[in-house]
Known about the structure:
Four copies of one chain form a homotetramer.
Chain A: H1 2-31, E1 34-41, H2 47-55, E2 63-66, H3 73-77, H4 82-85, E3 94-98, H5 107-111, H6 116-135, E4 138-146, H7 149-161, H8 171-176, H9 180-194, E5 201-205, H10 209-224, E6 241-243, H11 244-248
Parallel strand pairs in A: 1-3, 1-4, 2-3, 4-5
Antiparallel strand pairs in A: 5-6
Helix pairs in contact in A: 1-10, 2-10
Bound molecules: adenosine-5'-diphosphate (ADP) (3 copies) and adenosine monophosphate.
Amino acid sequence: MSKKNDKKEAQKRLEALQVALVDTQIWTMANGQKVCILLEGRDAAGKDGAIKRLTECLSVRNTHVIALPKPTDFDRGAWWFQRYVNRLPSTGEWVVYNRSWYNRAGVEKVMGFSTPEQQETFIRDVPDFESMIVRSGITLIKLWLDISMKEQKERLDDRRADPRKKLKVSDLDQVAQDRWTDYSAARDDMLRRSHHEHGPWICVATDSKVKARENILRHVLKVLDCPHAGREVAAPDPDIVFSYDEVIEGRKTLEP
Amino acid sequence: MSKKNDKKEAQKRLEALQVALVDTQIWTMANGQKVCILLEGRDAAGKDGAIKRLTECLSVRNTHVIALPKPTDFDRGAWWFQRYVNRLPSTGEWVVYNRSWYNRAGVEKVMGFSTPEQQETFIRDVPDFESMIVRSGITLIKLWLDISMKEQKERLDDRRADPRKKLKVSDLDQVAQDRWTDYSAARDDMLRRSHHEHGPWICVATDSKVKARENILRHVLKVLDCPHAGREVAAPDPDIVFSYDEVIEGRKTLEP
Amino acid sequence: MSKKNDKKEAQKRLEALQVALVDTQIWTMANGQKVCILLEGRDAAGKDGAIKRLTECLSVRNTHVIALPKPTDFDRGAWWFQRYVNRLPSTGEWVVYNRSWYNRAGVEKVMGFSTPEQQETFIRDVPDFESMIVRSGITLIKLWLDISMKEQKERLDDRRADPRKKLKVSDLDQVAQDRWTDYSAARDDMLRRSHHEHGPWICVATDSKVKARENILRHVLKVLDCPHAGREVAAPDPDIVFSYDEVIEGRKTLEP
Amino acid sequence: MSKKNDKKEAQKRLEALQVALVDTQIWTMANGQKVCILLEGRDAAGKDGAIKRLTECLSVRNTHVIALPKPTDFDRGAWWFQRYVNRLPSTGEWVVYNRSWYNRAGVEKVMGFSTPEQQETFIRDVPDFESMIVRSGITLIKLWLDISMKEQKERLDDRRADPRKKLKVSDLDQVAQDRWTDYSAARDDMLRRSHHEHGPWICVATDSKVKARENILRHVLKVLDCPHAGREVAAPDPDIVFSYDEVIEGRKTLEP
Ligand SMILES: Nc1ncnc2c1ncn2[C@@H]1O[C@H](COP(=O)(O)OP(=O)(O)O)[C@@H](O)[C@H]1O
Ligand SMILES: Nc1ncnc2c1ncn2[C@@H]1O[C@H](COP(=O)(O)OP(=O)(O)O)[C@@H](O)[C@H]1O
Ligand SMILES: Nc1ncnc2c1ncn2[C@@H]1O[C@H](COP(=O)(O)OP(=O)(O)O)[C@@H](O)[C@H]1O
Ligand SMILES: Nc1ncnc2c1ncn2[C@@H]1O[C@H](COP(=O)(O)O)[C@@H](O)[C@H]1O
C-alpha cells in the first residue's frame, strides 16, 4: 500500500513542478527569453524520460527537442557546431538537446568516431562557444546524468527484454558496459575541461529515476527563476543535483 | 472496480499497439521507407494526446514531430508549402505534423489570416502537391480528428481550469465555440476538395479519447502493413475510424 | 575595323538592356514580385555567360544564382524538388537556376544517374509542380539554350585549351559529343512533356553567344514587362528566341 | 596609346592570376580544403568588383558568394553569428562573404541598428568565434578595403549618375560621406579589437581599383599557397596590401 502511495505522492509533486514550468515558460515567452537545456549521460541514464517530464506540458510550438542522428558526410565536412547552431533557440523558444555537441567528447572519443585532434579541438573550443551563445542572451543549462554501472546493466537488460523499448537498444549499448571505464575517463575529462563560468555542469544522480526527474525539473525552475512560479516548490535535493564544483572540491563523487 | 479494470485493459491494448509500431518502425527504417502522418482537427480534438501515444516508443532520432508556429514574414512571402517541404521525411524517417499545410483551409479561412484567393489556390493545389510527394515515395496518412461541440466545450473548460494545461489555451480557443459552424463549413469544404486517390482523408471520432488514440494507432499499423508486426492487433473500429468516402456516400456523418 | 565597331555596338546594346533590367528589378522589389529564371541546355550552351550578363547589374542582396552540386545522399532520399524548393524566391527576390530540377530529365537520364521510374515520375509531376509555384505568385521563366553539335565541339575544345576555363571542364563534357543524339532525344522528350500553360519553354539559339545573351535579356524584360523600363529596347529576335510552341507547330527546329 | 596598353597589360596580369586561382581551387577541392574569404569596407570601396574578378573563373558549383540582406526578425532574435554559420564552407568549398558578421561593428554601430551592448558582445566574441572556425579547418582570409574620402565621393557620385549602377545606390550611401569620421572611428576600433592570430586583418588600399583587385588576388594566392600554382605571379605589392600589424606599428596608415 505504501509503495502505491509513494507513487501517487511522486506524481502529485511532478504535477506541481509541471505547473511551475508552464508558468515559467509563459513568462519566458513574454520576455523573449531563449532557453537551451542539454542532457548528457551514458546510455540508459534517463535522458529520454527526463525530457518527457520536462516538456510534457510545455508549448508544442515553442519547445523543440533535438535528437540528432549520427553526422552525415556533409556534417563531417562542416564546422562541428554547425548543425547544432542551426537549431539554437530564437526569441521565446526553449530547445532541449537530447545529447549534444558533447558527443565529440563522449561516444566519439570512446568509439573512435573522430580523430584525437578533432576531439582536442572540440574540448578546447567548447567553453568559448558556450560563452558566446550565453552572452548572446541564451540561458544554457547543462545536465550530466550520472548512473551507476549496476543500474545501467539492469536498465539495458530490461530494455532488451521489453519489446516496447526495442528502438532504445542500439549497437552502442552493447559496449556500454564493456567500455565502462573508458566512458568514465571520457566523462571526467569532459566535465573537468568544459565546466566554466558561463556553462557550469550540473550533475544528477540518476539511479533513482523518480528522484532524478523531479530534481531536474526543480533545477530548471531554480535557474530560470520566474518571479511568480515555483515559489512553493522545494529546492533541488543536494544529494541528487549538484554542481560539478562540488566534485572538484571533493564533496561529491561521481560513479567510478 | 470495473472502471479501473477498463483502464488497465486499455493500457494493455495500447502497449500491444506500441510494440507493433516499434516493430513497424524498425522495418521501415531497414527499408528506407518515408512516413508522413498529419493530424488535423479543431482545438482540443485530441491531436497532442494521439501524437504522444503514437510516438512514445518510437526512435527519438528518426521521428520528428513538427508543430510549426504561425508563419513569419518570410514564410508569408514564400510558397505556402515551402516550410513544410523543408521538413518532409527523408529515407527511414517518420514525420508527424501537428497541424499542417491544411491550416490554410481551416484556421486561416475562418479567422481571415490569408486572402480568399490564397485559400482557393491552396485547396486547388493540395491534391497535386500530395500526389507528388506520394509518388516520390512518401507514405502519407491524413487524419481528421472529429470532435463534437459539446465535448470540445468540456475540454476547453477543463483546460482553462487546469494549470498544467495553460499553454494549450490559445487566443484562438476563445472563438472555437462561437465560430463552430464556420469551422464546420471550412472542414466540409476542405475534406471534400482535398480527398483524393493519393491522399485520402481518414476521419476519427474523438469524443472518446481512449478509443480515438487506440484506433489511430491501429489505422497507422494497417496502412504501413509490416509483414511481421501487428498481425494480432485488432483492425480499426469502423465506428471510430472511417474513410471520408463513407461520409460522401452517406454511411457516416461528421459532427454538425 | 568593322568587327571592332560591331563589338562596341553590341556592348552598347547590352548596357541599355542592363539599365532596363535594373529599373525592372527596382520595380519588382517595390512590388514584392518573385522572379524565378531557369536556364537549361547542354554543356557549353552558354548558361554561365548569359547569367553573368543578366545579373551583372542586379542587386547582390536580392538576386541569387543557384548552381547546385550533385545530390548528396540526403538529397537522394528526399523528394526530388526539395532542395530546389528550399531556394525559391521570396518576396522581392530574383532567383536564377543554373541548371535546375530538369537535371532529372537530362543528364540523369542520359547518364543513368537515376532510375527510369524516378525520371518518369519527375516528368509527369513537373507541370503540376511548376503550376503550383506559379499560382503562388512566382514569375517563372524557363529557357532552353540550344547549341549545335559543331559549335559545342569548338567550345569544349576551346575550354580544354584555355587554362582559365579548366573548372568548366567536367567529366561529363567528355561524353557530351559521343552521346549527342541521346541528349537530343532527352531534350525533345523533356520539352514536349514539360511545356505547359504556366511553364512554357522558351528556346534560344545559342550558336552566336552575343545574340543569345542579348536576346535572353530582351526576353526577360518582355516577360516582366515593367511599365517604365525597356520601352525603347527592341523585342527579342524571333530567329533567336522562340516559344517551344513554334517547334511543335513546325515553324522552328531545334538542333538535330 | 600608353593608357590603352596599360589596360591590356593589366588584363593580361589579371588573367594570369585567374589561371593560378583556378589551379589553386582544383587543388583545394581535391584536398577537401575549406576556404572562407570575407570582404569589408565602406560603401564603394570596391568589394563587388574584387569579388567579381576573384570568382570569375572559379567553379560555379563549389564557390558561393554570400551577400545577406538586412537581418529579419528571426535573425534578430537568434545568435548573431547564426545565419553566417549556416553558410560556412564545407569540404572543398569556397565561400566569399560580401560584408559579413562585421556589420555589427560597422554599419550597425554607426547607424545604431543594434545596441551598444550587442556591439560590445560582438567585438569581444569575434576573435574566439573566428579562432574556432579556423581550428575546425577553415582557411579564413579577412580583407579590409580602404578607400579615401575623396575617392568614395567620386565613386558615389558616379554611381548616382550611372543608370546601370542604380541598384548599388542605397539609402545608407547618402550618409557615408557625412558620417565619414564615425565610420573611420568604427573601423579603427573594429580592426584593433578583432585582429588576432587566427584572423589577422589584411588592409587593401583601394583608391586604384585595378591595383586593388590585382593585389587581392595575389594575396589570396599567397595565403592558399598551392604548390603548383601561381609560382610565377608576383607577390602582393606591400603598398597596396599590408597586414594590420603594420598599421599598429606605425609603418602604414589608413585613410583618416
Ligand atoms: N558512427 C557514428 N559517428 C558519430 N556519432 C555516432 C555514430 N553512431 C552513433 N553516433 C551517435 O552516438 C550517440 C549515441 O547513439 P545511440 O546510443 O545509438 O543513441 P541514443 O542516445 O538515442 O541511445 C548518438 O548521438 C548518435 O548520433
Ligand atoms: N496570425 C496567424 N496567422 C496564421 N496562422 C496562425 C495565426 N495565429 C495562429 N495561427 C495558427 O493557427 C493554428 C492554431 O493555433 P493555436 O490554436 O494557437 O495552436 P494549437 O494548435 O497549438 O492549439 C496554429 O497552427 C498556428 O500556427
Ligand atoms: N553523379 C551524379 N548524379 C546526379 N547528378 C550529377 C552527377 N554528376 C553530375 N551531376 C549533375 O550534372 C550536371 C552537369 O554537370 P557538369 O557538366 O559537371 O556541371 P556544369 O553544369 O557546371 O558544367 C550538374 O547539375 C551536376 O550537379
Ligand atoms: N536596418 C538595418 N539593420 C541592420 N543592417 C542593415 C540595415 N540596413 C542595411 N543593413 C546592412 O548594411 C549593409 C550595407 O547596406 P547597403 O549599403 O544597403 O548594401 C548590408 O550588409 C545590409 O544588410
